[in-house]
Amino acid sequence: MGQLDGKTAIVTGGNSGIGLATAKRFAAEGAHVFITGRRQEALDAALAEIGPGATAVQGDVSDLADIDRLFTAVAEQGRRIDVLFANAGGGEFSTLEQVTEQHFDSTFGINVKGMLFTVQKAIPLLNDGASVILAGSTAATSGAEAFGVYAASKAAIRSFSRTWANELAARQIRVNTLVPGPVDTPGNSGLAPNQEEAAKMQAFFASRIPLARMGRPEEVAAAALFLAGDQSTFTTGTELFVDGGLNQI
Prior knowledge:
This protein is an alpha/beta fold. Helix content is 45%, strand content 17%.
């Protein structure tokens, strides 16, 4: 038996990187997984990797109508939610002098607004005892140059997890923040303008991590499974770092 047999899980941003690795792991553990993403082609490719135990709903979490379509699709299948991994997010480098209104609105629209309303709109479908996992980042506390707006958006997520853990505790719904360090994903590589610069950036990240390498999406997915399943039923309102020791040592 899998750790999530018979359960229903949602993974926003489940078409690549950490989201895809987690959706695959949840499905392998017996869950039916709903994934979201903005590009239908990427969703179709993700479904082929995940297998038959998955449903894809195209959408952008910064658009509330798209979030509504996701949960309508869940309800139309007669399902309720046991695990919600609010993973969709993104960011770009921009120094204080370079920040534009568009940069701010885009980053906070996905990472903060999208996170908030994904969880809010899931509440009517969440089973008592469900697990809500929010995607944080070590950037929230590192003070990395040119990453201030992204870092601030991830700091907001940590605050959300504390408040929502309190607000949902009466239903035994757990809310935790999963905090990856630098992970080798397409989104991470996409921060650089070209492959050469991406390789330099990854080498820099690896040089700062005590384990001397970047993380793998599958390693973060394993931590997400811990928070999703019955082994973490007394864990709520906390942060689980999967960062190779970057923010710990």
